[in-house]
Q: What sequence folds into this?
């Protein structure tokens, strides 16, 4: 037993990827969590019409952790339209004799919640019994967490599962000698990558369709836009995931090594997929999202399902996914030549 334990320890110590997974990966993930979930210095911006708001309330609002901006009576009256066009505002406070005191938010979010809490604290300091109504441009106060973040899980599950399947399958192809025998024929390296990508993409597309239809029609995940654009986005995301899995498989010599790559390649993307508002992340770390394919898919799906966006609103995200897939294709082709020397 002792000899077996010693052999396992020696093998693990000789495997640099295992050591990285055991020692480095937890520290990397914990550091990301520290930065992403730590205290944020974000200060919400609230719009008010100071002509209709008592001076005492304006003073109380200014004493809170808020940025107060003066709006015209017309802008406050059309608060939802104004928030839709000026998303730098987190909330608008409207005091009306007809509807009472209303806080209008763009959508249920961390930023909106912080703005609403600061406003309510200011009002409670003047009148503890004050009643406040909440309205949203998109979504509602009583919607479930699944309705708020369902679009993120659509992107995450599709990308992660397809990545695992394609990455492991390609490693198995190479370790079994199938890839080497194939490349002994006149077929080009680029055609090999395209062939594998197209083959596994078929199953990725089927999976994407099933996930979207099940979520919308069975789980009743609401969608403000056309689910056809959601399907298109999921298909592009799935194809990108296949290319991503192929890239990882080229640098891995076994299925275990593909799994060992997950803490460094997939888990960081989860934090930048929309689960946490990117502009709340300190030190401008939110900009790292632009190098992560899940970000483009999640943002496109959010635009469609939450805001009702169409093609001309999400085309930039779709282009980002297509560009990412093309870049991975080029990397895969060159890496296949350099590392396998075939």
A:
């Amino acid at each position: 037993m002792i000899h077996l334990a010693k052999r396992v320890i020696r093998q693990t110590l000789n495997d640099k990827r295992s050591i990285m997974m055991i020692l480095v990966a937890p520290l990397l993930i914990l550091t990301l969590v520290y930065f992403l979930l730590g205290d944020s210095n974000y200060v919400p911006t609230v719009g008010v019409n100071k002509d209709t708001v008592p001076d005492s309330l304006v003073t109380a609002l200014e004493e809170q952790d808020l940025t107060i901006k003066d709006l015209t009576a017309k802008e406050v009256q059309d608060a939802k339209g104004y928030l839709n066009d000026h998303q730098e505002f987190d909330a608008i406070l409207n005091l009306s004799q007809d509807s009472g005191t209303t806080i209008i938010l763009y959508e249920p979010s961390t930023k909106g919640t912080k703005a609403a809490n600061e406003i309510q604290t200011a009002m409670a300091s003047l009148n503890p019994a004050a009643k406040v109504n909440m309205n949203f441009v998109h979504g509602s106060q009583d919607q479930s967490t699944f309705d708020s973040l369902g679009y993120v899980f659509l992107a995450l599950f599709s990308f992660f599962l397809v990545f695992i399947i394609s990455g492991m399958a390609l490693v198995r192809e190479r370790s079994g000698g199938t890839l080497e025998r194939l490349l002994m024929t006149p077929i080009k390296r680029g055609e090999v990558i395209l062939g594998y990508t197209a083959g596994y993409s078929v199953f990725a597309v089927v999976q994407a369709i099933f996930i979207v239809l099940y979520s919308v029609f069975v789980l009743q995940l609401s969608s403000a836009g056309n689910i056809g654009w959601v399907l298109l986005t999921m298909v592009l995301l799935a194809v990108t995931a296949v290319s991503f899995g192929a890239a990882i498989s080229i640098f891995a010599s076994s299925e275990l090594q593909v799994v060992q790559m997950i803490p460094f390649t997939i888990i960081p993307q989860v934090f930048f997929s929309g689960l946490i508002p990117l502009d709340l992340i300190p030190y401008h770390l939110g900009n790292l999202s632009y190098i992560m394919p899940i970000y483009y898919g999640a943002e496109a799906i959010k635009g469609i399902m939450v805001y009702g966006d169409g093609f001309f609103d999400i085309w930039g995200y779709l282009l980002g996914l297509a560009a990412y897939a093309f870049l991975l294709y080029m990397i895969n082709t060159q890496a296949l030549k350099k590392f396998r020397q075939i």
User: Anything to note?
Assistant: Residues 145-175 form the longest helix (31 residues). The chain has three domains: 2-37, 45-136, 145-340. The longest strand covers residues 91-96. Residues 2-37 form one domain.
